[in-house]
């Protein structure tokens, strides 16, 4: 279906890219958080763009390109490969909270091995060859102070570098293993508790591109409020969420719109011709910066409300559905033979 998102976004079931341990977390979560919209203004219905209107495609990974089985839906991979083969002038670039190494499967499935990427929400920009072009970290003193506050509150803390995920604090929980849950998203994890790792952070030897704070969704609002009462969101860090059950802290000057701006200049594509896909609150920056934004059927409420279009869920190949509608509208995917709904919706 390609229809309006504004009226139905809060009713949609959220699904995320998870391994078994992460699926266990979702099943144990309590009531879905009530999201607040930043705007109540009516939006004008946009027509679906034509192929000539799209000059670049940027896409989130978890919950967008990846399905809940940690794979790419065949419809999505086939649609992207079609664009790469028939419209090679259009870059298709992952912009994600994940590490680049954790996106290797996506690159192989979709034929994106020669594409650059924006990782850790844009904190790290990689060249097409996989080399770091730029990276920005959170102030070391802030990282240390945030970690100490969270340890006092018995919360889990994982510190991201470009090539590793470091467990510096782990909440004891009767049913949830936050270490394995975090491994489900980025497997390059190691336990550094009881080492001098935090001394290295404090001395500036480590570039901390992201702090990853998994917890039960029921306590997320209180933890967000507490952190922002101690620290200055927007100055000490930028707080965001790709998932309802995980708070993420990134450098204050970073969000995915920064990566979008970089790639817009790199490929000389005006922002109005950039199409973006995503499902989390961390995607809203690039949604607002791009000319065409698409929220997944499994999206959180805020990105669903601010996007221009919506599509089916990650488990239904939602990215592929809308790309096929734009780039090969006469094409019939095998499951479409029994369906009359194309999977595309314009925001109202």
From TrEMBL:
<dbReference type="InterPro" id="IPR036412">
    <property type="entry name" value="HAD-like_sf"/>
</dbReference>
<protein>
    <submittedName>
        <fullName>Uncharacterized protein</fullName>
    </submittedName>
</protein>
<feature type="compositionally biased region" description="Polar residues">
    <location>
        <begin position="28"/>
        <end position="42"/>
    </location>
</feature>
<dbReference type="GO" id="GO:0016791">
    <property type="term" value="F:phosphatase activity"/>
</dbReference>
<feature type="compositionally biased region" description="Polar residues">
    <location>
        <begin position="1"/>
        <end position="14"/>
    </location>
</feature>
<dbReference type="GO" id="GO:0000287">
    <property type="term" value="F:magnesium ion binding"/>
</dbReference>
<feature type="region of interest" description="Disordered">
    <location>
        <begin position="1"/>
        <end position="52"/>
    </location>
</feature>
<dbReference type="GO" id="GO:0005829">
    <property type="term" value="C:cytosol"/>
</dbReference>
<dbReference type="Pfam" id="PF08282">
    <property type="entry name" value="Hydrolase_3"/>
</dbReference>
<feature type="compositionally biased region" description="Basic and acidic residues">
    <location>
        <begin position="15"/>
        <end position="27"/>
    </location>
</feature>
<dbReference type="InterPro" id="IPR023214">
    <property type="entry name" value="HAD_sf"/>
</dbReference>
<dbReference type="InterPro" id="IPR006379">
    <property type="entry name" value="HAD-SF_hydro_IIB"/>
</dbReference>
């Amino acid at each position: 279906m390609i229809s309006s998102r504004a009226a139905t976004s809060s009713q949609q079931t959220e699904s995320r890219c998870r391994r078994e341990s992460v699926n266990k977390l979702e099943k144990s979560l309590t009531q879905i958080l009530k999201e607040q919209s930043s705007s109540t203004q009516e939006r004008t219905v946009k027509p679906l763009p034509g192929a000539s209107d799209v000059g670049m495609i940027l896409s989130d990974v978890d919950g967008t390109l990846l399905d809940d089985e940690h794979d790419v839906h065949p419809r999505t991979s086939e649609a992207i490969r079609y664009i790469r083969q028939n419209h090679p002038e259009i870059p298709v670039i992952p912009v994600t909270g994940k590490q680049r190494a954790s996106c290797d499967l996506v690159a192989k499935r979709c034929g994106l091995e020669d594409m650059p990427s924006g990782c850790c929400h844009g904190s790290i920009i990689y060249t097409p060859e996989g080399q770091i072009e730029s990276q920005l970290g959170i102030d070391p003193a802030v990282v240390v102070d945030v970690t100490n506050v969270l340890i006092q509150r018995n919360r889990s803390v994982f510190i991201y570098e470009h090539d590793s995920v470091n467990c510096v604090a782990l909440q004891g929980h009767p049913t949830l293993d936050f270490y394995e849950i975090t491994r489900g998203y980025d497997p390059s994890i190691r336990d550094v508790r009881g080492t001098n790792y935090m001394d290295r952070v404090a001395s500036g030897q480590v570039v901390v591109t992201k702090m990853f704070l998994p917890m039960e969704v029921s306590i997320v609002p209180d933890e967000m409020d507490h952190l922002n009462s101690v620290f200055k969101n927007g100055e000490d860090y930028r707080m965001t969420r790709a998932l309802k059950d995980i708070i993420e802290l990134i450098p204050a000057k970073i969000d995915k719109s920064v990566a979008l701006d970089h790639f817009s200049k790199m490929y000389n594509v005006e922002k109005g011709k950039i199409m973006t896909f995503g499902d989390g609150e961390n995607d809203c920056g690039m949604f607002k910066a791009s000319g065409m934004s698409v929220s997944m059927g499994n999206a959180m409420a805020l990105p669903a409300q601010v996007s221009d279009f919506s599509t089916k869920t990650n488990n239904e190949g939602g990215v592929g559905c809308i790309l096929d509608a734009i780039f090969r509208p006469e094409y019939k995917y095998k499951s479409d033979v029994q369906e009359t709904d194309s999977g595309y919706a314009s925001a109202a």
